[in-house]
Amino acid sequence: MDSSDRSLPLNICHVQKLLLMVNRLYMLLHSTALLFLFHYRLCFLFQQSESRESHLLPWILVFASEIILSFVWIFDQAYRWRPVSRSVFPQRLPQDDKLPPIDVFICTADPTKEPTLDVMNTVLSAMALDYPAQKLHVYLSDDGGSPMTLHGMREARKFARWWLPFCTRYKLRNRCPKAYFSALEEDDHSDFATSSVYMADKQKIKEKYEAFKEDIKAFRKDRAFSRDHTSVIEVIQESIIGVDIVEMPLLVYVSREKKPSHPHHFKAGALNVLLRVSSVMSNSPYILVLDCDMFCNDPTSARYAMCFHLDPKISSSLSFVQFPQKFHNISKNDIYDSQMRSLFTVQWRGMDGLKGPVMSGTDLLQLKEYFGTSNEFIKSLTQNYIRDLAFGKNTLLEEPHLLASCEYEIGSKWGQEESRLLVGFLYDSVVEDYLTGFVLHSNRWTSVFCEPPRPHFLGSATTNLNDVLIQGTRWYCGLFENGINRFCPLIYGLSRMPLLQSLCFAWLTYFPLYCLPLWCLATIPQLCLLNGIPLYPKVSDPFVIIFVFIFLSALLKHLQEVLLTGGTLHKWINEQRIWMMKSVTCHLYGCLDALLKKVGVREASFLPTNKSEDNERTLLYQMDKYDFRASNIFIVPILALFTINISCFVGGVYRVLLVGDCDKMFIQLCLAVFVIIVNYPIIEGLVIRKDQGRISKSVAIPVILATVVLLAFFKLLRNV
Ligand SMILES: O=c1ccn([C@@H]2O[C@H](COP(=O)(O)OP(=O)(O)O[C@H]3O[C@H](CO)[C@@H](O)[C@H](O)[C@H]3O)[C@@H](O)[C@H]2O)c(=O)[nH]1
Ligand SMILES: [Mn+2]
Predict the structure, then answer these.
(1) What's the confidence (pLDDT) of residue 240?
(2) How many CB atoms lie within 10 A of CB 448?
(3) CB 305 within 8 A of CB 298
(4) ipTM over the 0.90 cut-off
(5) Range 90-94+102-460 classified under CATH 1.10.760.10
(6) CA angle 701, 525, 581 (to 5 degrees)
(7) Do the annotations mark residue 326 as ligand-binding?
(8) Whose CA is nearest to atom 27 of ligand 1?
(9) pTM
C-alpha cells in the first residue's frame, strides 16, 4: 500500500434515500389509520347501548389484540427509519505484517446431530482463510467431549497439509472442501479452471479428500452429548516429527470439563472457555465466532471485517462486525422462511443505520480490551501478542486445563455484567448472542453489518416444520425472557441507548407476543360470525375504509419488502403462513417457557438443531411441501384453529343467508376466508397428499371432531 492510499476510507456507509422516504411515508399513513381505528373502538366502548353490553367481552379481546399488534408494529418501524448499505475496500488494508492476529472459535456439541465430517469442513474452511497463517488460530470447542471429533481434528490437520496449499496456489474462493467438491464443474471460479495442471491437482486432492472422508466415517460411533467428562485440550499437530513444510494456522481442540452438578451455560459457556484457553495460547485481540455448521464460503471475510476494526473513525467504539447468516440449503420459495429474510435483510440493515445490528451467530469481535481488565487472570496476561510455539510440543498444558474446568468459574463473574464490564459472553439467556449484543450496545459500544455480495459464511438452516418450531420455541423463549427480566429494552435499554435502537431491541424481545393477537383473531371474530355478533363496522359505514386500509397497507408493505429483497409472490404468502403457524405455536410456547422459567418451574435448555440431512425430508422442502410429521403440540393447535375457521365460515355463510345481515358480518367473513386461503396447504396435507409428510389421519380425525363438537356445543349454549 502506498501512502496516498492511506487517505482513502476502508469502508463507506450509504443511506438508502428512496427506501427511507417510502418507509417514512408508509409510517405516516399507517399510523394515522391506526389512530382512527382506536377512535372507532373507544367510541364503541364508551357509548351507552344495548349492543355494547352483550358484546363487551369479544370487543375488548379484539381491541386488546389490535393494541398489541400496533405496539409490535411501532417497534418494527424503528428498523425502517434509516436503512443503510455499506461498501468495503479490503484492497486498501495495510500489508499483512501490520494486520492484527485473529482467533477463530468454532463450537460443536453433539456428533450425531452435527456430523463430524461437516464440522471438520468448517474447521478446514476457517484454516484456509486468506490471512497470514501465523496470525490465524483455530479453536474448536467440543461440548460432546467426543473421541470422534478429536480424531476428526487430527485427520483434518493432515488433510489441511494438502488442502491449504491447493487453495492458495489456485486462489480458490470456495475453501470448504465439501462445498468445493460438490459444486458443479461450471461453478468452478478458479482462474485456472481450464488449466490441465489444475485439473490434475484437483483430481489428486479429491482423492485425498475421499480418503479423509472414509477415515472419519470408519471411526467408531460413540455416545452423543455427554454431560459428564473431563477436559481434553490438544494442540493438533503432525504426528511425523519434523518441520511442517506448509505454514499452517494453529489448530486446537478444546473439550471443557462437564459435570451434571455444574451448569455449563451451553454455547456461551463454551465460548467463555475458549476465551480463557486461547488467552494463554494465542491471545489475539480479535475473535471470529462460528457455529460448527457455518463454513467460510469466502476467504476474505476476516479482511472485510478488518476494514471496520481498523477504521480509525469507528474502531474505538466498535465491538463487533456482524455478517448475515446465510444458508446453503434454502429452496426457492423457502416455505418455512428458514432464511429469516426479514431479519437479515430489512431489519439488520435498518439497525445498521442506527447503532448497529444485534449479534447473531457469525461475527468478528473485539473483546479483549474491556474483557481483559475485568478478570484477575486475564489482567496478568501480557497484552503483547506472541505465538508461543513451545505449546506445539507440550500436550499436557496445565494452565488451559484449569481454565477449562467446571470449578474455575465458581465465585467469579464469568457470564455476567458487572459495572458496565462484560465478562465474556453472558449467561442469563439461551440467546447469548442477542443478550451479549444488547448489553454491549447498552454500554455505548456499536456494531456494523457487513454484507458483501457473495455470502461469506453458509450454514444449515432447519428445513422441516418440527425442527423449525422447536428452534423457534428456544429462540422466542430466550428473546421474551429478556423482555421481562432486568434487561428489558424499554427500561434498561432506553436509559442507555438512543430511542430507536432500543425500540429495535424491544421488537426482538416482544414479537413473540404475536401469539396473543393471533390466537384471538383466529377464534373470536369467527365464533362471533357464527353467532351473528358484529365486531367490525358495516360495509356501508365509512369506518370500514380504515380497516381495509390497515389490512392492505400492512400486506402491501410486506410484499414490497419481499420483492425488494429478492423474494417472489410465493415467498410472500409463504411468510404470511409460517408467521401464522409459528405465532399460534412456538411464539406461545416460547412465552410460556420464559414465564415458567421466571417463576422457577422450568430450567433453561438448549437442544442443538439437527444438521444432518435426511434426503426424503429435504426433498419435501425443496418441493414446497410442508412436512406435517411434527410433534402433536404443534399440529393440534394449527389443525384446531383451521377447523374453527372453516366451520365458522360455513356456519356463518348459512346464518347470513338466513338472516340477511351480510353487511354487518362482511369483514368477519373476509377474515375467515383470508385465514383459509393463506393456510390452504393444510387442506392439501389433510385430503390431497399421499406422501409421508401429510397430516396423519389418526391425529386429524380426533382433533377435527373434537373441535366441531365443541363449536356445536358453544352455538347451542349461546342460543339457550
Ligand atoms: O451446549 C451447547 C449447545 C450448543 N452449542 C453450539 O452452539 C451452536 C449453535 O447451536 P445450533 O443448534 O446450531 O442452534 P441455532 O438455533 O441454529 O443457533 C442460532 O441461535 C443460537 C442462539 O440460540 C446462536 O448461538 C447461534 O449462533 C445461532 O446460529 C452450535 O455450533 C452448537 O454446537 C454448544 O457449543 N454447546
Ligand atoms: Mn445452527
Answers:
(1) 58
(2) 26
(3) no
(4) yes
(5) no
(6) 50
(7) no
(8) 361
(9) 0.93
